[in-house]
Amino acid sequence: xxxxxxxxxxTLLALRLANVYAVQTFTHPxxxxxxxxxxHHVVFGYGFLTWEWRHALRGFxxxxxxxxxxKILAFLHLDDTFLLxxxxxMSLSMGTDIxxxxxxxxxxxxxxxAFALWPWSGCDSPSAIxxxxxxxxxxxxxxxxxxxxxxxxxxxxxAMACIIRPTSGVVWLSACAFLAFGRSHLARHNGLLPWxxxxxxRIAKIAMAVGSVAFPTMxxxxxxxxxxxxxxxxxxxxxxxxxxxxxxxxxxxxxxxFYASVPVLFTSMLPFVIHGxxxxxxxxxxxxxxxxxxxxVLVQFSLVSHMEYRFIYPLLPIxxxxxxxxxxxxxxxxxxSVTADNVASYPTPSQPASKHANDNSKYRKNPxxxxxxxxxxxxxxxxxxxxxxxxxxxxxxxQRGVMDVFKYLRRNSTSGKSNSVTxxxxxxxxxxxxxxxxxxxNIPMWFLSCEPPLERSAMDSHYWEANDFEQNPTEFIRDxxxxxxxxxxERTQHEQPSHLVLYGSMVSRIRDELNDLGYVETxxxxxxxxxxxxxxxxxxxxxxxxxx
Length: 548
Known about the structure:
The chain has helices spanning 3-22, 30-33, 36-44, 51-54, 61-75, 81-88, 103-117, 134-137, 140-145, 151-164, 168-181, 184-189, 193-226, 232-242, 256-266, 270-283, 289-301, 316-330, 353-358, 360-363, 376-396, 401-412, 436-439, 465-471, 473-480, 504-516; strands at residues 424-426, 445-447, 499-503, 519-525, 540-545.
C-alpha cells in the first residue's frame, strides 16, 4: 500500500469511526433485539430472547461477536453501560444504516471483502474491438486455471458471511455459477469446452473444501449458543419460505426491491450507478458480471413475499463500483465510448489501472470532450449536499427519544431516591426501544408482545398484545393492572410498575385512565418530526407511579 493509499485509507477509517460514534438514534429493532440483547443475555444472564431465538430460526455467530466484547469488559470490570453501547455500534461495515450493529452490516462487510478478491470476468482485452478474444490466445490449461487463484480466500470470506446470515448463499451460489460457466460460450467457440468442465469442477472442489470447514463451524457455534444441536437455516426456510409466515410482518410487491430498495440504498447516487452499468455494457472495458450478478440476486430475493431494503445490503459494493466508473468517465478520466483509438486508455486485466496511473498522458488519451466533462468537485458537492444532511438528521435527530429515554431510566435506576426506577412497562408497539442491553440493570421490565403465528392456519385468528392495546387501550390497561381475573384470557396481567413509557400520541388517548391509576408525567423526550406509523408519533413520555 503506497503513501497516498495509506493516508486515504486512514482518512476514510477516521470518518467512518466518527460516523459510528455520531449515531444517537434507533431505526431498526433488529439492531438491538437480534444482536446486543442476545449477547447481553449470554454474558450477563439477563436480557430478552425474542421468538426467533426460542424457535432456533437464527444463528448465534453474529451476537457472539458482541458477546465476546461484553465478556472482556465484564472480566475487566469495565461493563459500564456507556462502554457497552459504544462497543455495540462498532460495526465493521460502511454506510448510514450499516454503521448499526445489524447482522446485515457484518454480512455486507464480509461480502465486500470477498468481492474485492473475486475474479470477475466479462472485461475484454483491447483486441476485442477487432473480434479477437482473450480465450483464443491462451493455452487451454491456462484457461482452466485462469484467474481463480484468489477464489479460496474469497470463498472463505463468503462462507463467513453465510454463517452470519445464511441467505448470503444466494449471492455466492450465483457468483460461483457465473465464474464456472460465464465464459462457456467463448470457450465453446474456441474449442475449449472440455476445459470449461474442468474449470467448473475445480471451482466446485474449492467450494466443497471451504464448505467442509464452514458447515461444522456453524453447527458448533449454534451448539454453543443454544446449548443443543440445532440447524437454524432449516427453521428459517420452513418459516419464511415453506409456510411463508414472514408475510405477518408485511407483504411486498414482487418488484419492491427494484422500485424501492435500490433507490433507498443509493439515493442521489443512483443516476451514477445506472450510468456506470451502461458504460460497462456499452464499452465492455469494465466487467459487466457484477451487474448481471446483482440483477440475478435481486430477482431471487424478489421471489419471497416479505422484503426489506436491508436484505440487499450486500449489493451495495457493486453499485458503488459502477458509480465510481460513471464519475471517472464524466470527469474525463475515461473515454465516453470505445473506439480503436482510445481503447488503450482503459485498464485491462493484463494492464492494471495502477500502470495507467503512472502514465498519465496515456491514461487520459482521447478523454471526453471538455464541454461534456463534469468536475469531480461538482460531483462531490452534489453528493455531499444530497446525502450528508440526511445522514446527520437520521443519525442525530430522527427517533432519538427512544434512546434518550434509556439514559434517563439508567440514571434514575440507581439514584436510591423514592422516585427511582425499580420496574418499567413499555406501552408501545413492540420493539420500539432497546431493552436490557441499553439499561444494564436487572430490574423487572416488560413490553407488549407481537410474536407471529407459527402455523399458516393461525394467521387470521392469531392474537398479539400490541394490536389489542392499539384497538382498545382503555380496556386493555384496566384489565392488565386489575387484581380481578382477566377479561381477555390471552392478555398478560402485571403489577403496576414504578414507571411507564409511552408515545405521546397514546398518552393523549388514555390520560384519564393513567391519572386514575396514579401515574404522572415525569419526563418527556423529543423523538421525531414525522413518522409514517401513527402509533409511533409524538414524544417519548415517561410516567411515574405515585404510591400512597
